[in-house]
Amino acid sequence: MKDSVLARVQRGLETLYRVETLLAVDVFLVNERQRDHALASTDGARRPREQLLVSQEGDDLSLALFLDGKALANLERHDPSGGLSEANFWDFCLAVEGVSHFIYVARCAAADRPVTALELELQAEVDKFVSCSLLQTDRDTAGLRERLYDRISYVDDLDPEERDRYRTANDQARRYASWLDRRYISCGKLDAMLVELRRFYRLGLSEKLGRIAATN
């Protein structure tokens, strides 16, 4: 039986970064009804198309991942392993973001390391760029970077703190992706880029921001 798109995205990211959660993301996937039930006691909680639900009681951490059902169905029809197009690009990015969040939180929990929302968003923005760039045959990532980081808008229901977090993650990831392109992708040094990406992945937020600042 063929693996789901999410399972393949998870395997791709874990292979890329040489990490292993020993958790199958499909098992933690919830539908809209289950997501709404989990958020029923949270007044004014946002319900975006991708959402990682995290709750902790003592030493026990519970995770659940919601991804828009229409996006998942579309990815099964337009499998990204066959290439990215207008038909599947944004839904693929949505899937990468959700799986990125899931893996990162799971790893931090296993290491008993706290993680901030900004750190999650920054890594997810980098993961989207890397995942998409590895699927395209063209070394020129200018169009991809413009699509991911410039031609975007933010939903109206974000509060000021959330909007600032998303803008910061977007800006920092754009800077890092531009440097990755100049330093590695444009000249075909993909093996060296993987070494850099694996090092970056293991940094904390302040170290990630410092790394990006040093590359520009």
Description:
The chain is mainly alpha-helical and 216 residues long. Helix content is 58%, strand content 8%. The protein has 9 helices and 3 strands; from the N terminus they run H-E-H-E-E-H-H-H-H-H-H-H. A 3-stranded mixed beta sheet has the order 1-3-2. The mean pLDDT is 94.
In short:
This protein is mostly helical and 216 residues long. It contains 9 helices and 3 strands, in the order αβαββααααααα. It has helices at 5-17, 32-38, 69-77, 89-110, 117-135, 142-150, 160-183, 190-201, 205-215, and strands at residues 29-30, 50-57, 60-67.
Q: Strand order across the biggest sheet? A: 1-3-2
Provide the succession of SSEs. Answer: HEHEEHHHHHHH
What is the mean predicted local confidence, pLDDT? 94
Question: Can you count the helices?
Answer: 9
Rg, please?
17 Å
Quaternary structure annotation: single chain
Secondary structure category: mainly alpha
* Beta-strand proportion: 5-15%
Q: Separation of termini?
A: 46 Å
Task: Give structural attributes.
single chain; 216 residues; mainly alpha; 58% helix; globular
Topology of this structure?
Blueprint: H1 5-17, E1 29-30, H2 32-38, E2 50-57, E3 60-67, H3 69-77, H4 89-110, H5 117-135, H6 142-150, H7 160-183, H8 190-201, H9 205-215
Parallel strand pairs: 1-3
Antiparallel strand pairs: 2-3
Helix pairs in contact: 1-4, 3-4, 4-5, 5-7, 6-7, 7-9
